[in-house]
Specification:
This protein has about 210 residues and is an alpha/beta fold. The chain contains 6 helices and 7 strands, in the order E-E-H-E-H-H-E-H-E-E-E-H-H. Helix 4 links the parallel strand 4 and strand 5.
């Protein structure tokens, strides 16, 4: 599989973060660009890649819907291999990208290829379908994990998520009034999107410092 990456941040960074995109938007969507730039400003080397169905939309102009998330697991593993990061690697992504990373994380951790998992807006359930949980594998997750979630994310709000059986390896970081893209309504929360992105990056930086490499 021909894998191409978008890079942000210093080449000699002490830690690399690999991010997969969400189900409906490419690796250079506005929210992915904003997250990558915030993490790069915090000193990380950030790499982004696209799953083959999304890359195909660029070359073929097709609008193929995303396949079942778990069928993309091998593509995430292949991206880690193709990246060949030097030094500690954190894998993750936005929404579906983070979910897929979470399904392959323990295997990659056990083989010494990654140090942690970062999910930006985890899709705990489809919008308006809170009974369709996507959390079973999260109960036994061994990989040190940070999930950054907006409190009003329609894929899992602060009212819902505490009731889910999540592994002790998972830390949740809540952004007040953030939506699925972590964006707050400034008139409601008093925060801007830029404020939340900086809070996210600062949190990732402090959390990454606790990981064993």
């Amino acid at each position: 599989m021909n894998m191409s990456f978008l890079f942000d941040g210093p080449e000699d960074a002490g830690c690399t973060i690999l991010l997969g995109h969400g189900a409906g938007a490419p690796m250079d969507s506005a929210s992915m660009n904003a997250a990558a730039k915030a993490l790069a400003a915090a000193g990380f080397r950030v790499a982004r890649f696209e799953f083959s169905y999304m890359a195909g939309r660029r070359t073929e102009g097709s609008r193929k819907p995303p396949p079942r998330a778990e069928t993309l697991n091998p593509e995430y593993v292949a991206a880690v291999a193709a990246l060949g990061a030097r030094g500690p690697l954190i894998i993750g992504g936005k929404s579906m990208g983070g979910r897929i990373a979470s399904m392959v994380a323990d295997e990659l951790l056990a083989s010494g290829k990654i140090a942690g998992l970062l999910c930006l807006g985890y899709p705990f359930h489809p919008p308006a379908k809170p009974q369709q949980l996507r959390t079973r594998h999260l109960a036994d997750l061994q990989t040190p994990t940070l999930i950054v979630q907006g409190t009003r994310d329609e894929f899992g709000t602060r009212d819902e998520v505490p009731s889910y059986p999540l592994s002790n390896a998972i830390e949740l970081f809540w952004l007040e009034d953030g939506d699925h893209d972590l964006k707050p309504r400034k008139s409601v929360s008093g925060y801007s999107a830029a404020d939340h992105l900086k809070s996210m990056a600062d949190k990732v930086s402090s959390w990454a410092g606790t990981l064993r490499h």
